[in-house]
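Below is how a single chain appears once it has passed through the pipeline. First comes the sequence as given, then the structure the pipeline wrote out for it. We keep one example in the README because the format questions we get most often are answered faster by looking than by reading.
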Amino acid sequence: MQRTVAEGRGPVRYGPPALQPGLPVLPELVAVLGEAAAHPAPQPPGGDEALRQAACRYWGRRGLATTPDRVAAGPGAPGLLLALLGAYGGDVLLPRPCPAWWTPQVRLLGRRAYHVPTPAECGGVPDPYALLETVRRVRAEGGDPRVLLLSVADDPTATVPPPETLREACEAAESAGLFLVSDESWRDTVHRPHDTLVLSPAEMLPEQAAVLVDLAGALLPAGWPAAVVRFPGTPRGAWLRARTLDVLTATGATVAGPVAAAAAHALGEPEAVSVRAEGAAALHGRVAAAVHRELLAAGALARPPQAGSHLYADLTPLRAGLARHGVGDAMELEDWLGGRLGAPAPGGQRFADELGALRVRLSTGPLLGATPEERLTALTAPDPLALPHVRRSLDLLGSVLAGLA
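Resulting structure:
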């Protein structure tokens, strides 16, 4: 199968697998979906009142008060982002690296995507000075940058930007006249929520930021696509929501009725959903920290993971060892490391990173076990790192990395 580099202009042949917690679906959600399956009425474009009200309550608990007429739902974040960007217009700025699915959405619309370096301490947001310089250069060359995409709990880097870093990026975007779209799909997967402050650009620039949440990030399984977006409470926000609904209507991008019912239930965060989300975040945090230790012990680089079920590793210091195996770029590293580990290890080129940099995203989900029973055991174990199947996976990673010394 042919592949294309993320920075190329060709079509996307295939992308890395979506990040998944790797845990069985909650029986409570299965019951809600099953009951709703008996009702065949379709969802309206943008979601019904129950789903949008649930999204309002979800954001209200996070300090972002809103009303249903400022919310729209769609069948997953990619489709919803595509509709929003199609409605807003203009070129788009993104951090480098960024989620693998962001850049294709921009280019499918025939828009230009401009990637901006991130600060040293985190991913997800652009360096403010680099952002301003990029906007200046693009406009001088005749471009039309209007939107900045960013993330407050990042895929691929698994980092959370410090409040002052996020504020500086927002101030730079405001001075450049950019509209912000904040992907907050992973904010509920922070490993140590009492030690990590997650802020939203919508708190800093309430009239200039939309918030996107893919529920598959923490609340629903990846196979039940549903996402919600919160628009600013301004006339321009109302205009953007109406235009977004037009696109969703024209493309038939509606949430399946049973999935909408499960999404509304999950957004309500009943005890079972909250306990599962918190337990999964803590589990992935412990495993990610162990993977981080293995990487550093081998001489590789990685920011300490703070959220999600993954981390982003830089194996450039191991270039000589990788060269012995014929690995010279991120695409070759993806194939070689994925083959050795028996699990996907998408290279940095998929995240708009440099092809020559030997970076990969490593997921913690495959380390939890090969069966639902093993993964549930990891979730409930006092020390998941002591479980034989988790220990074997970590030892395999350590031995593969040690062989590159």
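Residues 152 and 307 are 10 Å apart (CA to CA).

See the next section for the split statistics.
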